[in-house]
Each structure stands twice: as C-alpha cells, then as structure tokens.
Write a structure and sequence with these properties.
157 residues, 5 helices
Length: 157
C-alpha cells in the first residue's frame, strides 16, 4: 500500500482515519462501530506499511481494552442486580410468594450493603473509563496519523 515515492497511499490512510472515527463514535452507538473498526484493522494490518500497521495494531488495542472495560462493567452490573434481587427476595415473606395475593415489598427494608455499593461504583467506574478510553485513544491515534507519525516504538515515531 505504498505509492511510488514511498508514502502511504491515500486510500489506506483514509481507511485508518475512518477506523479512528468508528472507534470514537462507538461510545454513542453501543460499541457496534468498534467491532467494525477492529475487523477492518485486523484485515488491513498485514498488507500495510510499518507506520500504518502500527496504527492498525493500536486500533485493535483500543478495541480490546474497551471490550475488557465493558466486560468488567457488565460483570459488576450483573453482580449488583443479583445482589438486589436477593435483597428483594429476603424482605418479602415466604407466604406472599405462595399466596395468590399481591406481593408487597417495603423498599425501606432493602439494605444497600457494601457489596452492592461497591458493585454499583465498579459499574460506573469501568463504564466511565471505557467511555473516556474510546474518546481519548482514537483522538491521539488520529492526531499521530494526521501528522504522519506511527504508534509506538516499532513505528519509527
């Protein structure tokens, strides 16, 4: 994907720029554009120049870090919801579950223990970190690509 004078072709460079835009926009579209960007980066990095390959590697890294943070947030949220369901079950009487009457739960009896609070804080923290990562990392990559520099030590930055 190099032109005659050794520079990266415009179409390859444009595709890398589009990938950064997809990664940045994935914050607003539930991560779907990030999957598309990762597929493109995986498919293009073997044929790319070393400089452009470093950007594709960075885009793949952006995807996997964001995926890991989203997974951690999801696990924390699932744990918090299971904890909350357990609390609701505990504050209802067993008679209420077996009767045909309505089940009444007094929300004042639900205890927000340290585990639930920690899981909710973890959910918010991992979500915020993932969102920041998906906004800052593609912006840095885009700036380096626009200025003609690679990513990392191997790219000859």
């Amino acid at each position: 994907m190099q032109s005659v004078d050794g520079r990266v072709s415009d179409s390859a460079r444009s595709l890398a720029i589009i990938n950064y835009a997809l990664l940045f926009s994935s914050v607003f579209f539930a991560g779907v554009p990030a999957v598309i960007a990762a597929v493109i980066a995986y498919s293009q990095r073997d044929d790319a120049t070393p400089q452009l390959a470093s950007h594709h590697d960075f885009q793949i890294r952006i995807f996997w870090v964001a995926f890991g943070l989203a997974l951690a947030a999801g696990v924390c949220f699932l744990g918090a919801m299971l904890n909350l369901v357990g609390e609701v079950y505990q504050v209802t009487s067993l008679d209420a579950w077996s009767s045909r009457e309505q089940v009444h739960v007094n929300l004042a009896d639900i205890v927000f223990d340290r585990t639930l609070v920690a899981l909710l804080v973890g959910t918010g923290l991992f979500s915020a970190l993932g969102g920041l990562w998906l906004m800052i990392a593609p912006a840095i990559g885009f700036i380096r690509l626009a200025s003609g520099r690679g990513m990392g030590h191997s790219a000859g930055s």
